[in-house]
Amino acid sequence: MPHSVLVHSPATLSNLGCGFDVLGLALQAPYDAIRVTQTAQPGVRIRHLDPYDLPTDPARNVAGVALLALLRAVPEAIGFEVEITKGIRPGSGVGSSAASAVGSVVAANALLGNRFTKMQLVEFAMAGEAVASGARHADNIAPAMFGGFTLVRALEPTLDIVALAAPPLWVAVVHPQIEVKTIEARKVLPATVPLGLAVQQWANVAGLVAGFLTADYDLIGRSLADYIVEPARQALIPGLAEARARALAAGAIGGGISGSGPSIFMLNKTEAIAQSVGAALGSVFAELGVAYNTYVGPVATEGARVISES
Amino acid sequence: MPHSVLVHSPATLSNLGCGFDVLGLALQAPYDAIRVTQTAQPGVRIRHLDPYDLPTDPARNVAGVALLALLRAVPEAIGFEVEITKGIRPGSGVGSSAASAVGSVVAANALLGNRFTKMQLVEFAMAGEAVASGARHADNIAPAMFGGFTLVRALEPTLDIVALAAPPLWVAVVHPQIEVKTIEARKVLPATVPLGLAVQQWANVAGLVAGFLTADYDLIGRSLADYIVEPARQALIPGLAEARARALAAGAIGGGISGSGPSIFMLNKTEAIAQSVGAALGSVFAELGVAYNTYVGPVATEGARVISES
Hints:
homodimer, alpha+beta, Ribosomal Protein S5, domain 2, Alpha-Beta Plaits, 2 domains, 7-stranded mixed sheet, 4-stranded antiparallel sheet, 10 helices, 37% helix, 27% strand, globular, homoserine kinase activity (chains A, B), ATP binding (chains A, B), threonine biosynthesis (chains A, B), transferase (chains A, B), EC 2.7.1.39 (chains A, B)
């Protein structure tokens, strides 16, 4: 068995417009590169090889908490050293904490001869994610683990994740550097929703799932509308409406807020369109004088995976 | 072109558990047999060849209103005589009015050289359905028109119906002879729902659509739970919980209230299981001393269709 493993763990889109808290998609880029090395010394030690100000105390770090959860299921007296190079900017809304949590447990599992199933690894990673978001959820973890398009059908009483086929799609994401904390983004959500709106929302969820599974791009586009969460959160992301308008004009199929924001994603049929859409998204924030990053890349068919081992 | 056409128009399940107001499924039986004959005399004349006490005034009859809507789009000065043999009991919750509305416009369209698209026919049929239910909706009309498994993604601003593949499934339905009026069944619905429950519901909608499209029977079964509508309506249908319990014990995949009730449906993998499940469903109402009918049959892959013409 290897002594040290390097894992590539992808950014992810969660919610996907109408599918708040349940749908997600893996991206090929950006990603975190996570090296985990097995040690005789018990416990977890974390080092960040990047400029972001993230905790290195394992009990306060998503990768640390995920690995500690995994270690509790391991009888051997071992530990892990972790080096995390974050390609995903924390707080951007494309699954930064999920990528670190998933990547670290996938690496540790490789060190342990892959004794755990992916569903067990999801449970460990969820423990890590809870540190960052304050809630137990898997809408970014599921696509980071399985790749492609995923549904978290239930967390309780039994975790039920369904990995689903996705057609070829190119994603354009803009991350305007506005701070939107996940906990704040949750506070603006309504406690209750009118039944009629809920029906429209689940009609779109049905349409989106059907659009993915039948590779019907028009249906995907028609179904991306979010009647409940985006109206509550749009005030947190100035430029959102204009960004969508320009992206659609540039040929995007559709999109919305990524996760709890502030990133905005758009799905596209081709790389060329996705590049134009990325530029269109960026132009809105350039005009607003808000710093931003854009990412353009395909949907990733694989989740977190071992790149090298020694 | 034919002078007289006989159409077979199927019963349908709407809602399908979690998919309130948007999902539906066509049954091979029961069905309405509808003969429409073109006349030189303008307008619509209706004759019911069955024991049910339904209006024959075309302005108050679902088939009549649907045909009058169709005639308004026809420049010729023609009319229709309609003979309806209802195999579907009115008020049973398996799309009785939708079957009559759809079957009559499909027949009229055949008489007119099929000049209207199925989507146009759905619009005419919806005008008819509104007479029976008091609301414009298409969750029974869509499967009656297209067959198989259908999603009504939107009624406004543009009617958007998606016909989806369904795996081989056998349906068992029990119709306990309790009166549940659609309008009454709508009144017990909550005006608003907690966001968390709405999320669980659309997770199940996503699972159900994915289960159908990937022929994953277990996923279909797990996803059939309805957290919003069934809890509100279960008091209208004594025996529902016991019927479900016995059906699952007899091997059903899952099920729930059909439409606004009182019928209860269960989906099954085989005809033999569906027969046992039908008997189990019936046994509950036999013990309660409530008269009932059961139907067992496969999902119909086709919607309303011409059987003979002359």
